Amino acid sequence: MMFKVHVRDVKLTLDCLKPVIDEISEYNKVLNQPMDELQDLQLHIEEGRDLVRKCSKVGAWSFCKKYRYTTQLHRHDKLLHTLLHLLELQKTRDIRETLVSVRNIETVVQRIEGNICVRQNQSETN
After folding, report:
1. What residue numbers bound the domain in which 66 lies?
2. Radius of gyration of the chain from its Cα atoms, rounded to whole angstroms
3. 29, 58 Cβ separation under 8 angstroms
4. Pfam families of this UniProt entry (predicted)?
């Protein structure tokens, strides 16, 4: 019974992750961001889905297969968590990069506003 629950949990996780990772991948294309950061995770999700398909075919009395697949599921789950942690770090980096860009834009806008004020003052004095 625990085997089926574990398989179901892994399947649910993978099913939830896939559309989100695919969407992030599409944003990366639009933003010309590197695709290689997600490739390992996408590959691991596909491998996990294959593993779940294999596990779903294991019979109730196949204790050796259940043991072997349980070990593989645990390894898969551990690596998945590591890859998701790396994705979290990449997200933090992207947020910082965005913040720097916003501040740079803010600086440029302030300079433009300053130039407009100077020109308005000059035209008023003329």
Report:
1. 2-125
2. 25
3. no
4. RPW8
